[in-house]
Amino acid sequence: MEKKTPFKKVTISPLVVKEQVIRLGEKTYKKTQEANVFFVGIGDFILFFWQTIKETFSLSFEFNEFLRQCFQIGNKTLPLISVTGLIMGGVLTIQSRPVLADFGALSLLPGMVASSIIREMGPVITALICAGKIGSGMGAELGSMKVSEQIDAMEVSSTHPIRFLVVTRVLAATLMIPILVLYADALGIMGSWAAANIKGSVSFVLFFNQAFRAIDFIDFFPALIKTFFFGAAIGLMGCYKGYSAGQGTKSVGIAANSAVVLSSLLVIIIDLIAVQITDMLL
Amino acid sequence: MTNNKPVTPESQNTFNSVIEINNLSKGFAEQQVLKNLSLELHNGENLVILGKSGSGKSVLIKCIVRLLNSDYGTIKVLGENVNELKSKGLAALRKKIGFLFQSGALYDSMTIKQNLEFPLIRIKKKLTKMERNKKIEEVLENVGLANTLDKMPSELSGGMQKRASLARTIIVDPLIMLYDEPTTGLDPVTSDGISALINDIQKKYKTSSIIITHDIECARATADRIIMLKDGEVYLEGTIDDFENSTDELIQSFFKE
């Protein structure tokens, strides 16, 4: 008697097998190519980073261009940071007030708001705004310089484009973003005081006394240190994306866009690492 | 080998060929742009390189200043092998070469004066501010742009931008000029003006030049010798008369255009 198996016998044509193998090969090749592009990109960035570090410590520093970039970054971002800082403090106060009032802890409001702003919200929100404004500006400017051969023109006139264009921008962003963060923090606390006075009455001196009594040096210092890293990351990513833009005007848009996306992502990642390190140390 | 002696217009006369290219090859991915190309630029001459778009003309002059690295072959500029130069040597050599880009490549965030000052401050470091200003005014006058000092590049017409770019190139007294499509995108009258300017620069600054173009009128006006490229190889070399009297179909079609 013939033994019955639970499985149905299926015959596959050799042509179908061949087609499947070819398709698998094509997919593998495509994925390999994508991985290749990814790793080449990482290598490119490391090389760019190394050149930037090397040129930062070169003897001929473009000081005038550095000052111009500091002015550009500071001056052009100031109105946006002012508005955001005020709103940030105001919103945080309006949102927290009812909860604290329910617990009868309204007197903790200035300290809580100041601590939130200085430790986390001020640095991160300011850095994200700068990633949008400065990162995209750098990506677009350097990208269009690349497309219109201005970077090549600089290179053939014996000026190192990384020294002139990249180092100055990265250093300016590294220096200016912490200053902008301090400014945003101050405005945030002012905004909080203004919002606290909408539904109640609290004097300026009392509010600030309570706010600063809740803040220690240890709240302030790690938050300030991480903003230098935010600045460096935004400057580096904006410049890298612009500097490595392809040909044609479309690549300028792509450079600006990817500069914003990647520098924002880097800000979040650096923040996560900074919080972990601070937590470990304290 | 690195030549440490400063090269001046006088000492340049010791080089019969200021540029010597041997068996140069350059490709991008699977496309071979230049194939075993060899040519020489003689001292004091205007060499026009003709060819259709994509024949490798621009790639060739970018390899000369090492904006692009060649895959194979040697390029000697003023006796120095460009591919073997370290960054300092390359920077020193580039100071002796003027490069006019197809787009002009003026720095659009700077005024015309700042554009001209940019290479001057970095290459002619010993000049005082007054000497620099005098030189800028003199060069701008030479290219017919005396009153554009404080204008931004975007305020100038295409022809004026090319002239300003040319002024930025010659302000550092280069020994060799490389022109990448100097008349592209310009009307015939402005093109003639640029061609005349190329000849004036050759006479006044005693430069040796490579002019990349597909503009026959520009070639007629400027060429001492012409090399035609086809698919990355030298197709024909000769004078303008040799080209105009050629019975070759490709050259005829090119000159009829």
From TrEMBL, chain B:
Keyword set includes Transport: yes
PROSITE patterns xrefs: ABC_TRANSPORTER_1 (PS00211), ABC_TRANSPORTER_2 (PS50893)
Occurrences of domain ABC transporter (ranges): 19-256
A single MF term (Gene Ontology): ATP binding
Keyword annotations from UniProtKB, A to Z: ATP-binding, Nucleotide-binding, Transport
Gene3D superfamilies: P-loop containing nucleotide triphosphate hydrolases
Pfam families: ABC_tran
Superkingdom field: Bacteria
UniProt name for this protein: ABC transporter ATP-binding protein
